[in-house]
Design brief:
The chain is α+β, with helices and mostly antiparallel strands. The chain is built from six helices and twelve strands. It folds into two domains: 152 residues; 145 residues, 3-layer Sandwich (Rieske Iron-sulfur Protein).
């Protein structure tokens, strides 16, 4: 309701006498009361234009690649919808000022109840009389809310699914270098190191997750045991660990054979890979050991994985960034 005022009658005992309540339907209070249908039609047209503008923006943004069209569609939608709301408020709602009869102090319970009933009744009248405009307003607001959420939802990228939990390593995957050449058990000397990947997965995206450092800590016919449960994981002196550091995801690319330690050059995390120590972090900020890949040598002498990693590689999920 608009501001409530009172006016004085001269000569009244006590000083004032409130004027009667003005009607919401008084034609003198509505500038376009003589053409309400015209005002309603104009308001409805602009609301519909706004709705179509939002829908066009959403469709264009979803397809992508048309920023100019997106800007025009969103601008038309906001302007037309805003104009329609303004026209509705200015030409179709009751206009003030209104004069209400009121007690100098607190109104009586009966007056308050009557006022509440009048508000409910007149609010219902507005909804009933303007049902079409109300429907367009509600639908347009819903479409606008959904469309404005598109940039947030679309810009988050694809759902990660289980990409943080598994890699492309699986049972029987043959180890290959970055050129796709299979790794033979005789390729590395003791103390050597090589970055390897599962055969068939050498794209940049796959390599970033699957990258594994293969090191040879002992000679042929030596089974390197890092844990009792991993007695067969290190055939012919070979060990393989995820190259993705468990601190910030940097590549662990340095191997010191004399101390049998892997070093991450980014933040100096140091992992011990000696007998009975499965890439245990002994220095630096890395919070946990590097996951180990179980290996075996096939009949042709090529290195293969017994299975994939038995735990997620890299830093904890909440510390990761994706591209």
């Amino acid at each position: 309701m608009s501001d409530v005022t009172t006016e004085e009658h001269a000569g009244q005992p006590g000083g004032t006498e409130p004027l009667p309540l003005a009607s919401f339907d008084d034609p003198h209070l509505q500038p376009l009361a003589r053409h309400p249908k015209r005002a309603e039609a104009v308001t409805g047209i602009f609301l519909l234009i706004g709705l179509l503008g939002f829908a066009a923006y959403g469709a264009t943004y979803w397809v992508g690649g048309q920023p100019q069209v997106e800007g025009i569609a969103l601008g038309v939608g906001l302007f037309a919808f805003g104009f329609g709301l303004s026209a509705w408020g200015k030409y179709l709602l009751p206009q003030g000022p209104f004069v209400e009869k009121r007690h100098a102090l607190r109104s009586t319970d009966g007056e308050r109840a009557a006022m509440a009933a009048a508000v409910v009744e007149r609010g219902g009248m507005v909804v009933k009389r303007r049902s079409f405009l109300g429907g367009v307003l509600g639908l347009g607001g819903a479409v606008m809310g959904v469309v404005l959420a598109f940039p947030l939802l679309r810009s988050l990228g694809p759902v990660p699914a289980k990409t943080f939990e598994v890699t492309n390593w699986k049972k029987g995957s043959r180890l290959v270098d970055n050129l796709g050449r299979p790794v033979h058990a005789a390729d590395l000397e003791v103390g050597g190191a090589l970055t390897v990947f599962p055969e068939g997965y050498t794209s940049e995206q796959d390599m970033a997750v699957d990258q594994t450092i293969l090191i040879r800590v002992a000679g042929p016919d030596t089974n390197v045991v890092t844990e009792a449960s991993r007695a067969t994981w290190g055939p012919d002196g070979y060990l393989a660990f995820s190259k993705v550091c468990t601190h910030a995801g940097c590549p662990v690319g340095l191997y010191q054979h004399q101390t049998q330690q892997l070093l991450c050059p980014c933040h100096q995390s140091l992992f011990d890979v000696g007998q009975g120590r499965p890439a245990t972090n002994v220095f630096g900020p890395a919070p946990r050991p590097l996951p180990q890949l179980p290996l075996y040598v096939d009949e042709e002498g090529y290195l293969r994985s017994q299975a994939g990693y038995d735990q997620p590689i890299g830093p904890g999920f909440w510390e990761r960034t994706t591209t």
